[in-house]
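Hey, I'm writing a tutorial for new members on how sequence and structure tokens pair up, and I'd like a real worked example in the thread rather than a made-up one. If someone can provide the structure for the chain below, I'll link this post from the tutorial.
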Amino acid sequence: MKKLLWFLVGVAGGFVLAHLVNKDPRGRDMLADIDARITEFTGRVGDAYRDQEARISQTVADARDGAVDLVQTARDAAADAAGKVKDVAASAVETVADTASDLAEKATDVASDVAEKAQDAARKLAD
């Protein structure tokens, strides 16, 4: 309670002193100079804050642009890879189909040869 009383006495004394100083022209000039310095200081702090905010905003924008570019590059790479896989798969299917066709043709030829030889053997046995 005692500290609160001293605080209030200090605040009241400060107001009385400021009022007395403001009555004198030199005191008024001194208070105006103090006010100008405080205004200049707060202006500099405000300018520094706005500059820092602009730098951070630019950094965030650059990071966002970089992320967008990275995602687009990854998307393009995935699309290219998918296209290549599709081409390779189509080529493999074509190769397998050609090989199967060749094997079927050879099997037909072999079966024909075997049938002819069987007929020749049957004729020889019949004679």
